[in-house]
Amino acid sequence: IILWKISGVNLAITYDSKMTWLQITLVVTTVLNLQVLQTKASVGDVVDYVWEARETGNDNDPEHKQAYWREDLGVNAHHWNWHTVYAVNADPAKHKLDRKGELFYYMHRQLVNRYDVERMSLGMPRVVPMDKWDEKIPEGLAPHLVHGKTGVAYSPRTTNTVLTDLPGLITMAEMRTYRSRVDEAISSGKFKYEDGTEGPLDIRLLGNTVEANFDCPNRPYYAGDWGLHNNGHDLLGMVHDPKDMYNSRANIGVMGDVKTACRDPGFYRWHKFVDDEFEKYEQTRTPFTDKELSFPGMKVKRVRLLDSAGKKTKSLKTMMTKKVVDIEYWPDFNRRDDTKVKFTYPALDHEKFSYQIKVKNFKKTAVKATVRIFIAPKKNSANKVLTMDEYRTLYFEMDTFVQEIKPGVSTFKRKSSESLVTIPYDQMVNSIKPVPEADETKRAYCGCGWPENLLLPRGNAQGMEFSLVVMLTNYEDDKSDSSGGDPLPTCAKSVRYCGLLNNKWPEKHDMGYPFNRRASAKNIEEFVKNKSNIETKYFKIFHKA
């Protein structure tokens, strides 16, 4: 038992003799503020705990600028819930998770793209892929978190560590073997099955293989137990004690837990490496033809942005706000069931807005259109207009929905809050509350979705320039047969990032269409040229300090 006395409050922590003093101190510093507040609370009180980004670092760390984004509750809840719905070890015979490997690729590409654009907003360099495994990793992390069930602290990672073998789990030699086999499959376009036969490689096979989920048809050859992606998380999560010399390897860092991995700058570097594997594959594919990108008889005449008052605008606004969560289960050794806790944390948010889209249907009957909305920065860090390859690795989906278009000219609006990418804040908060096991799938699915408050990137005080792309395609050609699946929970759904549970993905196109494949166009202006069903508009995002 360690006894700590601070501010007149006695704090008792029971610890394991195998724990290092660093781990004990982390437990103490994480619990202390909550314990002080709880001890001073009267029965029935509401205890307020405020979390600030400075809790986990300061400006001596160049990565600290973006801590508010990495530590956003919604980002981490989305990632956790996605990997709960699309569990790596889900039995394919019991869980019909349509296009699981492809969605693994697409969702994580969108996550990294959004992170990259946020860095650009802050004047930071783009993410560097963690593909040189012998080099030192300059990014460290001290999460100041304890596991809610065990009370054990997540281990920190010091700066300039190097990935190394985890005896009994994975070696770097094995990682290089799996990497070379995946690369060989990409370059040859052939996948080797466990029975010795070969077949064509596609994005779904590649996604299942890189993640090494149980849908992968040849895990022993391409992945071993956990493959490239999963072992990367463990390598970073256990690098503080890789040989378990101090019996602390099990006290994994945040990278080893899907609930917390997004807090680590290393997460985005690792996933940039993973995404580059998929990009190698996309570079082998034939670009979409003009016919594959067209919608005969349809023209997008004008795209406008409307502010929260419904007035047309050429700019959108973001700001930092305070989000409040009522916590029922929290790390407290003297828990009082009738004492409530309100947890407040800083979060990026934006003023609500809408899209106003004017179109012309040249046909004599109404048609259903798939409306696709994307944004990307107009320029790169060197202040040059993005090349098409840069655009493809920086754009992100804002919304995709179905709209009936009447003959002739018509105008329709779509609210930002209606996006099929995001979920509402309250729904996200509800998803982190414990539920009976029978309701776990519903909880996870309803909590899967990009946080609505982070739909827009931060922008900057001067107004960061973005391109808005609106594309209409023929819904009758796009749609898949999604009938016959399980009933979906009643909640707002992030269909574009989280699919439809055991139902089919709602369309036939590649995820990321039309920007997943390499393009012959030099930039986005050339890409949309002479395509009547696509329109682009430039606007600015201002951040109010």
Automatic annotation (TrEMBL):
<dbReference type="InterPro" id="IPR013788">
    <property type="entry name" value="Hemocyanin/hexamerin"/>
</dbReference>
<dbReference type="InterPro" id="IPR005203">
    <property type="entry name" value="Hemocyanin_C"/>
</dbReference>
<dbReference type="GO" id="GO:0016491">
    <property type="term" value="F:oxidoreductase activity"/>
</dbReference>
<dbReference type="InterPro" id="IPR037020">
    <property type="entry name" value="Hemocyanin_C_sf"/>
</dbReference>
<dbReference type="Pfam" id="PF03723">
    <property type="entry name" value="Hemocyanin_C"/>
</dbReference>
<protein>
    <submittedName>
        <fullName>Hemocyanin</fullName>
    </submittedName>
</protein>
<dbReference type="InterPro" id="IPR000896">
    <property type="entry name" value="Hemocyanin/hexamerin_mid_dom"/>
</dbReference>
<dbReference type="Pfam" id="PF00372">
    <property type="entry name" value="Hemocyanin_M"/>
</dbReference>
<dbReference type="InterPro" id="IPR002227">
    <property type="entry name" value="Tyrosinase_Cu-bd"/>
</dbReference>
<keyword id="KW-0479">Metal-binding</keyword>
<dbReference type="InterPro" id="IPR008922">
    <property type="entry name" value="Di-copper_centre_dom_sf"/>
</dbReference>
<keyword id="KW-0964">Secreted</keyword>
<dbReference type="GO" id="GO:0046872">
    <property type="term" value="F:metal ion binding"/>
</dbReference>
<keyword id="KW-1015">Disulfide bond</keyword>
<dbReference type="InterPro" id="IPR014756">
    <property type="entry name" value="Ig_E-set"/>
</dbReference>
<feature type="domain" description="Tyrosinase copper-binding">
    <location>
        <begin position="264"/>
        <end position="275"/>
    </location>
</feature>
<dbReference type="GO" id="GO:0005576">
    <property type="term" value="C:extracellular region"/>
</dbReference>
